[in-house]
Amino acid sequence: MEKTAVIAILTVVCLTGCVLFENVVRKGFSEEDLIAPLPYKAQNTQKKPAGNYFMPLSYSYNISWEMMPLYAHYQGAFMAEIENTGTHTLFIYGFALKIGDEEQKGRWNSGKEIPPGKNESFICSFTCPAGGNYTYYLGVYFMAGTDGKWHDYGLKYVSEGRTLEVKKYGVAYYTPHKNYYRYFDRINRLVDPAEPALRNQVREITEDYGTVYNIAQVCAIFDWIYLNVPYVNETGDTWKDPCSALDNGGDCEEFAMLMAAMVTAAGGTARVYLTDNHAFAAVYVGSDTKVMGNVDAYYNANLSYALFEDEFGYWVVADPLASFYLGGLPVGGIVTGLDGKYYRWSIVTNDLYSIDVLNK
To answer: What is the dihedral of CA 202, 204, 206, 209, to 10 degrees?
Structure first.
């Protein structure tokens, strides 16, 4: 046989083999494998004290905040962190935004107490206007108190004008793949929800939210990863197991596997999604979206959420590298239209691989 003919045959075999292997998938979840979190209405705020002291008390605080990507007519969100730099205790019970000519106020009957030298964070929501660029101002409802005496300062605006962009809807398409064997085998080899260090950490994170797997525990796991696991920009294609990320951090693959492993260790069901250049987790929440109201309660905010839907039900996105709350859009996520509380959304990627994380 001539050399060129051999090369041609080998080329065809190689290409065919690549196509065949590209279609090799593993058996993932069945209906009986799925565990949805129970409802749990967390109370992460305190009752607002009575403003019973006429004389003003001194106060001093530092405030910083960050905005989520904003899309027209959805619920925008920002996270504010307030540090009490004064000598009296502060009580924060709401926020306000002036966006262009419109003022939105969120004033609560509860809030958070901040002693001198301490800090607290708050997640707040607001309705985004039409797409465009705006100047906005941030305000805070607060009290100052000592020895049971509280002076209510009401609303005070604290910021110079800043600019924000409300994005218009985009378009994105991708090819979905489910349980592609290369990623499935690799992820499920690395993720071990029964690992003692991981289970102990999960128990510590969730102990304030009952002993049975519930949605507040999922939020608490997400928040813990967001606040405590450092992002490490790694080169190459080396993935570490989730337990190594507990102590040393990691990049997006480690974050996604850690989130999935912790949820599975808590008793739930999770997946890892991989795009062209990113990885993130999603958590199964059931055949309907009712439990998401408890996520609003956990964060004390009316939020918009990114969900996947398949034959089993709904999966809430859990990407601490893109969002400061459970259910925010992942890295690469864009909104494609208006659809109420839940984003109509897509991801800027050529291929999206979803990998079921099994409970070993």
So the answer is: 160
d(CA 44, CA 25): 43
Contact (Cβ atoms closer than 8 angstroms) between residue 126 and residue 76: yes
Check whether domain 56-167 has CATH 2.60.40.1470, yes or no: yes
The answer to whether residues 350 and 317 touch, using CB atoms and an 8 Å cutoff, is no
Q: How far is residue 193's CA from residue 317's CA, in Å, rounded to a whole number? A: 19
CATH topology for 26-43+170-357 is C8orf32 fold (3.10.620)
In this predicted model, what pLDDT tens digit does every residue of 274-310 receive, in sequence order? Answer: 999 999 999 999 999 999 999 999 999 999 999 999 9
Is the pTM value of this prediction over 0.85? yes
Residue 78 tokens read as 């920002």
Phi, psi of 174 (to 5 degrees): -150, 160
Q: Starting at the edge strand that comes first in sequence, how are the strands of the sheet with 313-318 ordered?
A: 175-178, 351-357, 270-274, 279-286, 313-318, 307-310
Which residues of the chain form CATH 3.10.620? 26-43+170-357
> Which amino acid belongs to residue 225?
I
For residues 109-123, one letter each, b for 16 or more C-beta atoms within 10 angstroms of the residue's C-beta and e for the rest, the string is eebbbbeeeeebebb
Residue 248 has pLDDT above 80, yes or no: yes
Residue from 155, 142, 116, 119 nearest 51 by CA:
142
Q: Which part of the chain is CATH 2.60.40.1470?
A: 56-167
Q: How many residues does the chain have?
A: 360
User: Residue for token digits 């967001």?
Assistant: 226
3-state secondary structure of 327: coil
